[in-house]
Specification:
Shape: elongated
Radius of gyration: 27 Å
Strand content: 25-35%
Largest sheet: 9 strands, antiparallel
Helix content: 25-40%
Distance between the termini: 76 Å
Number of helices: 7
Order of helices and strands: EHHEEHHEEHEEHEEHEEE
Length: 273
């Protein structure tokens, strides 16, 4: 470790500039003594300092360099987040494997049709990894529009997946917020910005199960739901719905503690058992 003065001699950079680089976040000391406040640097910080100086000599401002580092930091953070999500998915698959052959913890029930009026946005999500960002923006757009129209939304929020199978690209997804039925005709004349007001098609019975816990364990709920449908003389008759029983999506950021009800419209199977 080198004191700041020693490191300045080694690098041929003034201590004033080293402190300035520290303030901008371009080159933090390797260690700071909490009692004396002395800054200490390490030899392996020298290459980074040399790159800063080289970029400065090429005409890059310190703010530009700081911006470049912030972009790089965001990219590294994004990669870390992706890897953490991948690890969580792997752990969920392992839990699913460990539970094979055991009784399912999910109870599936058959529910009767109900009438709902929703305000919703329907978009194509490019990649499954884009879904969190898309969902938050879509839900916020619906709530903002309802607030502007002075309509208090009902609960709970719903996500509808308009696809006959699981896909990872070009996902046709609709985020919906229930509204009081008496407002739907008036609001239908005010729709804008991709907002639509419609009655949610509940002409079919639907099978439903509740998942509480990690968002990464949702595949287990899907397995239980579809296994029940296939084993009970029914077939899928509509789009899968995800009902948010744990409140607004944008206010619940704990992916390990969510409560969703999954609903699947069904009809009596046309195939013999």
């Amino acid at each position: 470790m080198f004191k700041i003065g020693e490191f300045s001699q080694l690098a041929q950079v003034s201590t004033r500039m080293l402190r300035h680089y520290d303030k901008l976040g371009l080159l933090k000391p390797g260690e700071i003594d909490h009692f004396t406040g002395y800054r200490y640097y390490t030899l392996d910080q020298l290459p980074r300092l040399n790159r800063i100086i080289a970029l400065k000599d090429l005409g890059f401002s310190l703010e530009q360099m700081r911006g470049m580092l912030l972009i790089k930091q965001a990219e590294i953070q994004r990669r870390l987040d992706e890897e953490q999500q991948r690890l969580a998915r792997v752990a969920a698959r392992l839990r699913q494997i460990e539970r094979e052959g055991q009784p399912s913890p999910y109870e599936v029930v058959l529910k009767q049709p109900e009438t709902h009026v929703i305000a919703s946005i329907r978009q194509i999500v490019p990649q499954i990894s884009d879904m969190p960002d898309y969902r938050c923006v879509m839900f916020e757009d619906v709530h903002t529009w309802l607030a502007r129209c002075r309509v208090k939304p009902s609960t709970p929020e719903v996500v509808i997946y308009h696809a006959p199978e699981f896909i990872e690209e070009n996902i046709d997804m609709e985020t919906a917020v229930p509204i009081p039925p008496e407002t739907w005709k008036e609001l239908g004349r005010l729709t804008s910005g991709g907002i639509q007001i419609r009655k949610l098609d509940d002409s079919s019975e639907f099978a439903a199960t509740i998942h509480k816990g990690s968002i990464y364990d949702i595949p287990q709920a899907m397995t239980a739901l579809f296994a029940w449908v296939g084993g009970s003389g029914y077939e899928v008759a509509g789009s899968l719905r995800e009902v948010h029983l744990s409140g607004r999506e944008t206010s619940n950021t704990d992916f390990e503690d969510i409560t969703f009800e999954f609903q699947l419209p069904v009809a009596k199977s046309s195939f013999p058992a």
